[in-house]
Design goal:
Helices cover 22% and strands 24% of the residues. By secondary structure, the chain is of the alpha/beta class. The protein is globular. It binds 2-acetamido-2-deoxy-beta-D-glucopyranose (NAG) (6 copies). One 2-acetamido-2-deoxy-beta-D-glucopyranose (NAG) binds next to β31 and β35.
Length: 778
């Protein structure tokens, strides 16, 4: 440690500086712990570093927010710029980085808008007939850590009836707090903790009217995601209005849950802005989860934009988790369908996109000419069963201080004289959908049609409105508008919503699901996989209404329908838990590989997966495809990778220093594309590229796999060797994949961001170990 500066002049300057200049939160990072140090000793060491740059002992005490003592070695503290540079100079300090002022968000699709709502008609549950589940003992020996915004422990989904005692290896606690004490944990919810120091520093004290200062969930998101992973089977569950009725169950119904609450209500002008998660709180949660002994970490949280690994506390925390062989499953984000919108792209994370299931909720509109327009809704209130006058909002606005003829049904824009007793067509945009139907109600209307605008395209949200309402496609908005303008007295009726099963095509990609390419590292193809994330039924808190708009929706529900990559992520966490139960010795990379190489790309019409607008989707939407846990349990071969491989990868892309300086990078590290990943992406290829891979046999001991490929347009793919002979389980075989650009086919319009897609596979006749390939011209 450097000598402590004792000049009083200097100290005076320092304290003056910190009076005028607000300190910021930094994480002082020492990498990993060496040897077995007692926890209080580690904290003391952290204090001594902090004290050496702070004027006083009290100053040090007051500024320390977290001491990360378990897997992560470091602390979070309030520091001035000068203090940061002093710490940076100390040789034990690997790096000092600033906490991101912008919090992470929960990956649901509601911001101003909220997207609707359905239970997982999970392909694997239909097929499995208890096979995979019983082999995995329903996940009973597996512990899944949920980093989220808490849990509603009284939900029937978290009953521990008939469960075996908590696994002995569990080291977690049940932390008491507001409306939450040790009796809220049981053999299902085996641990609960909460983290708010970063949040309170940024937003001030938690407003106890808005949230519980404990692991209890007020908002619904954390309860929903936890029950998707490990909710018990609850018969007769349904959303408000009886939609999606049936048995609600998590994917691993006997798995144990450990709750880490690190997200709290966003404070802003509106109460309905959702939650935010501050990075140092998340890091503390991950550090504890690793120590407590979770097997899987399910994180339905991310930044809204891609950020480098070094600035991303989820990526950092997940790397530590991977060292402990924890499978870290994260949501890909809800910023689609625009390209380059992915978050959580580190290769040690399993990144999950969202797609539909084969169920929808129809609330069609009947016109007086007998025409029917399809509508989507899970609104439990219905209109009188007769025809009503139909008007377009843009025609019935009163004059006011707003742009007229907007058609948006914004608050106080509709003229009651012209709306009384009518159905109003409102256009999406500028405000929440729930508020739009409430504006029609305020103006005396009888029903609302929420029409997609051009940019919404084919993504019709299903909402539980507080007033008769349904949602329609953009082309149907136009159809309705034409009907309204072409008829003197257009009439219509919105039928009550119905749950419709076996809808086609399914799965199809959710348009909100974030898309590649991965701009943090163009040699890693992301997302990895897709799973159900549209209209998922799962458990809910009993304090926040089904729409999460706490300021206007006071309904109490036990189950609710919700959408987002937040919902698809826990589906894959559950699948990972079942695989972990069946293959307890597999690495986290092997589990990911099994899920990816067995994923499907064909929908229930026997056609390739589509985007929600019906056009073919690409691996930048779905990665390797739709997850298939049943197949993943027996993948034949896996692409394994160790913690050390990930560190070598960090050398390849030059970020090792930021993550763990004492790792000795090889002099010429392999190219990042050679990380043993179950997919391949090559950025800017103009000639040939040889990519190295290793597969491990996890199937039958004697097996022969042959290579096949569908090369991306304009490229060829070959493997060497192209036959792999295995004679034992656990045997590893190396092979090279050579991708060659066919110069004759170079596109006239050259664009390095334009990728072409294909795949290659190893097959023994039974198992097909498939990897997507994405290549762009260089
Ligand atoms: C960095 O990683 C290596 C390799 O796992 C480990 O042995 C070492 O202890 C780590 N160094 C520090 C300072 O944490
Ligand atoms: C936990 O809280 C409940 C409800 O307030 C109470 O009945 C119970 O006795 C408490 N249990 C413990 C262990 O404090
Ligand atoms: C849902 O409810 C409807 C109407 O009561 C019933 O016909 C249907 O069988 C139920 N579906 C399931 C999956 O229970
Ligand atoms: C269409 O609706 C979306 C919200 O769903 C909004 O962001 C967008 O601005 C709207 N576009 C127009 C042209 O109003
Ligand atoms: C391929 O790319 C390399 C590096 O960008 C460049 O030097 C070379 O001229 C290119 N070759 C062809 C045939 O375009
Ligand atoms: C793969 O290619 C590398 C580099 O070109 C070479 O060293 C290695 O022997 C090849 N491996 C196989 C299995 O062909």
């Amino acid at each position: 440690m450097k000598a402590i500066v004792t000049s009083s002049f200097f100290l005076l300057l320092l304290s003056l500086a910190s009076c005028t200049q607000k300190n910021k939160i930094y994480v002082v990072y020492f990498g990993e712990h060496s040897g077995d140090k007692a926890l209080d000793e580690i904290e003391k060491t952290h204090y001594s570093y902090l004290s050496s740059v702070k004027a006083t002992e009290e100053g040090a005490k007051a500024s320390l927010l977290y001491s990360y003592k378990h897997s992560i070695n470091g602390f979070a503290a309030l520091l001035s710029k000068e203090e940061v540079s002093k710490l940076q100079e100390m040789k034990e300090v690997i790096s000092v980085f600033k906490s991101q002022p912008k919090g992470y968000s929960l990956h649901t699709t509601r911001s101003w808008e909220f997207v609707g709502l359905r239970e997982p008609l999970n392909p694997f549950r239909k097929e499995s007939k208890g096979d995979l589940l019983s082999k995995a003992k329903y996940g009973e020996d597996v512990i899944v850590g949920m980093i989220d915004n808490g849990v509603w422990p009284e939900s029937q989904s978290f009953s521990d009836k008939g469960m075996e005692p908590v696994p002995k290896r569990w080291k977690g606690i049940c932390q008491a707090g507001t409306n939450f004490n040790s009796s809220n944990c049981n053999k299902k919810i085996i641990g609960a903790r909460y983290y708010f120091k970063g949040y309170e520093y940024v937003y001030g004290p938690i407003d106890e009217k808005e949230d519980y200062k404990s692991a209890r969930d007020k908002d619904g998101h954390g309860t929903h995601t936890a029950s998707i992973v490990a909710g018990r089977a609850v018969a007769g569950a349904s959303a408000v209005g009886g939609f999606a009725n049936g048995t609600a169950s998590g994917g691993a119904p006997l798995a144990r849950l450990a709750i880490y609450k690190a997200c709290w209500p966003f404070k802003g002008q509106s109460k309905d802005l959702g939650n935010t998660c501050i990075d140092i709180d998340m890091l503390a949660a991950i550090d504890d989860a690793i120590h407590d002994g979770v097997d899987i970490l399910s994180i339905s949280i991310g930044y809204s934009n891609p950020i480098p690994y070094k600035d991303d506390m989820i990526a950092r925390g997940a790397l530590h988790a991977t060292k402990n062989n924890i499978v870290v499953v994260c949501s890909a984000g809800n910023k689609g369908p625009a390209p380059k919108t992915l978050s959580n792209v580190a290769p040690w994370i399993l990144t999950v996109a969202a797609s539909t299931v084969d169920r929808s909720f129809h609330a069609p509109i009947v016109l007086d000419n007998g025409g029917i327009i399809d509508g989507q809704s899970i609104t439990p209130v219905h209109m009188e069963n007769k025809l009503h006058r139909l008007v377009y909002a843009g025609h019935v606005e009163h004059s006011g201080n707003f742009e007229q003829n907007s058609g948006y049904c914004l608050p106080d824009t509709l003229n009651p004289d012209k709306v009384e007793g009518k159905i109003v067509l409102c256009i999406r945009g500028q405000g929440g959908r729930l508020q739009k139907s409430l504006e029609v109600k305020r103006a005396g209307g009888v029903g609302a049609i929420i029409g997609n605008n051009k940019t919404n395209g084919a993504d019709v949200p299903c909402d539980a409105h507080l007033f008769p309402a349904t949602g329609v496609l953009y082309q149907d908005s136009l159809k309705l508008l034409r009907y309204i303008t072409s008829k003197k007295n257009p009439m219509a009726h919105i039928l009550p919503g119905k749950t419709v099963l076996y809808t086609k095509p399914a799965p199809s990609m959710a348009s909100f699901s974030s898309r590649g390419p991965n701009i943090v590292d163009p040699s890693i193809l992301k997302p990895d996989i897709t799973a159900p994330g549209v209209n998922i039924l799962a458990a809910w808190t009993e304090t926040d209404g089904p729409t999460r708009m706490s300021s206007i929706d006071f309904r109490v529900v036990k189950y609710n329908i919700f959408s987002g990559t937040s919902m698809s992520c826990p589906h894959v966490s559950a699948a990972a838990a079942l695989l972990k139960a069946i293959h307890p010795t597999w690495s986290s990379a092997a589990i990911r590989s099994a899920l990816m190489t067995t994923a499907g790309t064909i929908n229930n019409m026997g056609k390739p997966l589509t985007d929600e607008n019906g056009s073919p989707a690409t691996p930048f939407a779905y990665g390797s495809g739709h997850f298939d846990p049943q197949k993943a349990a027996d993948p034949g071969l896996v692409y394994d990778a160790s913690y050390n491989d990930y560190l070598v990868y960090t050398c390849s892309i030059g970020v090792t220093k930021d993550l763990n300086v004492s790792f000795n990078c090889p002099n010429s590290p392999p190219e990042p594309v050679n990380l043993n990943y179950p997919s391949i992406q090559i950025h800017m290829l103009n000639d040939t590229k040889t990519v190295q891979r290793i597969v491990t046999n996890v199937g039958s001991s004697n097996s022969v796999y042959t290579f096949s490929a569908k090369p991306p347009q304009g490229f060829s793919i070959k493997a060497s060797p192209n036959v792999l002979n295995f004679d034992s389980v656990g045997q590893k075989k190396r092979f090279n994949v050579t991708v060659r650009a066919r110069r004759a086919q170079v596109p006239t319009k050259y664009d390095p961001e334009q990728y072409y897609f294909g795949w290659f596979a190893w097959s023994n006749g039974i198992q097909h170990v498939r990897s997507p390939v994405a290549v762009s011209w260089g």
